[in-house]
Design a protein that fits this description.
Blueprint (H helix, E strand, L loop, with lengths): L1 E6 L6 H15 L3 E6 L13 H7 L12 H10 L2 E9 L2 E2 L1 H10 L5 H14 L13 E7 L8 H10 L4 E8 L9 H18 L22 E3 L5 E3 L5 E7 L2 E5 L12 H22 L2 H13 L9
Parallel strand pairs: 1-2, 1-3, 3-5, 5-6
Antiparallel strand pairs: 3-4, 7-8, 8-9, 9-10
Helix pairs in contact: 1-7, 5-8
């Protein structure tokens, strides 16, 4: 069993320490462990070029056009059967580099697109995407913040796991955690997270979420979008339902058929993929029109972009 720890905090400080503590727990459970400090890597921002999707759907693999350390990191993640992330809280959510990592994973790691692309490539006798991308994987998350401004990060974590459909075992948020390195109770919890991850990865197909139950009974999220039309939408899995008062708290209720629309299910991903495909077809038609080309040239010429070398 290979367990990988990825920390995004200041080198050798709180996040690194709790990530290593989780790995010590995984090692105690019999795992082979390794550690990566995320800020040691050169990871460029995703440009949204969609080249990976076009390659994927035409039987040319799904490599990214950007050349940096992400390829190395991707291989390390794909070789592991369990990953624990320890990420600092910036402005209530995950640090920017974690979002960059999410963006670079993007459609290249999407289980729905990869499943479709693999079938297409096999039918055309062309290159299939890396089969490791379709491997089930257990993942856990640790967030460390210096105050109680931390309400976004659980959803950030869930979104990352949602794309490849990794099985989340724990999502733990430590607020007011500036002294966590000497907080024995929280150190014990980080150790437990590592042990849980290692044990879950032994049989990931039957692994289950062990963290805070949250409010959404499907994905355990605590963030919801209250639309003006009365709908309540889970910000993570996208299920639409209603919020009900239950005892001293809240309960999110929804019809069972909503599960087939959930963003973290294969059926929901296929539906989303079909919607995108239809939309792309319409966009391509518009982009071929003279009106679109004229508008594009108009905006390109109207206000040029500034660069540091202009000063």
């Amino acid at each position: 069993m290979k367990k990988l720890g990825i920390s995004g905090g200041t080198k050798n400080s709180r996040n690194d320490s709790m990530c290593r503590e989780a790995l010590l727990g995984a090692k105690e459970a019999g795992a082979e462990v390794s550690f990566i400090h995320l800020l040691d890597l050169d990871i460029k921002h995703c440009t949204g070029c969609t080249a990976c999707v076009m390659r994927m759907m035409s039987g040319k693999g799904n490599d990214c056009v950007l050349k940096d350390d992400f390829t190395w990191l991707e291989n390390k993640m794909l070789d592991a059967d369990g990953i624990v992330f320890s990420i600092p809280i910036f402005e209530k959510g995950a640090m920017g580099l974690f979002h960059t990592l999410m963006d670079r994973m993007g459609p290249r790691f999407d289980r729905g697109l990869l499943t479709t692309a693999t079938v297409l490539a096999q039918s055309m006798d062309k290159q299939v995407p890396d089969p490791r991308l379709l491997k089930d994987k257990a993942v856990s998350y640790i967030a460390i913040g210096g105050s109680d401004w931390m309400t976004r990060i659980e959803c950030d974590f869930g979104i990352q796991a949602m794309t490849p459909m990794w099985t989340t075992i724990d999502r733990e948020v430590f607020s007011w955690a500036s002294t966590i390195i000497v907080d024995e109770q929280r150190i014990k919890r980080a150790h437990e997270i590592g042990m849980n991850l290692a044990n879950a990865a032994k049989d990931v197909s039957n692994a289950r979420y062990l963290g805070d139950p949250g409010v959404c009974p499907h994905c355990h999220c605590r963030e919801f979008y209250f639309a003006n039309n009365g709908k309540v939408i889970c910000c993570l899995c996208g299920i639409e339902g209603r919020m009900e008062i239950k005892g001293n708290g809240y309960a999110f209720a929804f019809d069972k058929d909503q599960i087939s629309h959930a963003h973290d299910t294969l059926e929901g991903k296929f539906k989303h993929g079909n919607d995108i495909q239809q939309n792309v077809g319409q966009v391509m038609e518009v982009m071929r029109t003279p009106a679109y080309k004229e508008k594009l040239e108009h905006y390109k010429a109207s206000i040029p972009a500034m660069k540091p070398t202009d000063d």
